[in-house]
Amino acid sequence: MFKKISLVLLILLYAGAGVNHFIHPAAYYTIIPPYLPNPVAINIVAGIAEIIAALLLAFPRTRAWGSYVVVAMLIAFIPAHVYMIQQGGCMGTAICMPLWGAWLRLFPLQFILIAWAWWYRK
Questions:
Q1: What Cα–Cα distance (Å) separates residue 93 from each residue in 10, 27, 30?
Q2: 10 Å Cβ neighbour count for 1?
Q3: Residues 6 or more apart whose Cβ sits within 8 Å of residue 68
Q4: Quick one: which of 30, 51, 56, 94 could link to 62 by a disulfide (CB 3.0–4.6 Å)?
Q5: Are 69 and 53 in contact (CB under 8 A)?
Q6: How far apart are the first and last CA of the chain?
Q7: Model-level pTM greater than 0.90?
Q8: Mind listing the pLDDT tens digit for each residue in 8-56?
Q9: Which InterPro entries match (predicted)?
Q10: Contact 96, 90 (CB under 8 A)
Q11: 3-state DSSP of the chain
């Protein structure tokens, strides 16, 4: 029962995060490191990928693929978390947190999210 509830929460998390990329894109532009080109395109691809991951996780036949997509995304998002740490946790007015909060987003939260998605690969 816990695993099913956890799965529903994971699906809602990624579906919501994906949709949020389109509702509040400016917040995401600020955390994309400046050395990466075209933050608008990166934000769109990330939002679509999160929505696709949620859909893949929703069905037993595609759940493993959804798990792999989430893990790949979380690894791909690491530069944004490192950039946030380099900026002291504040990314303009859109996102501002204490530096320790930025560190927590990278470690352990990123690894917890990876482990959570990995749990559904079988």
A1: 28, 9, 9
A2: 5
A3: 121
A4: 56
A5: yes
A6: 16
A7: yes
A8: 999 999 999 999 999 999 999 999 999 999 999 999 999 999 999 999 9
A9: Methylamine_util_MauE (IPR009908)
A10: yes
A11: CHHHHHHHHHHHHHHHHHHHHHHCHHHHHHHCCCCCCCHHHHHHHHHHHHHHHHHHHHCCCCHHHHHHHHHHHHHHCHHHHHHHHHCCCEECCCEECCHHHHHHHHHHHHHHHHHHHHCCCC
Q: How far apart are CA 5 and CA 19, in angstroms?
A: 21
- As a residue count, the chain comes to 122
Which amino acid is present at 67?
Answer: S
User: Hey, CA dihedral for 61, 64, 65, 67, is it positive or negative?
Assistant: positive
Q: Structure tokens of 29?
A: 């532009």
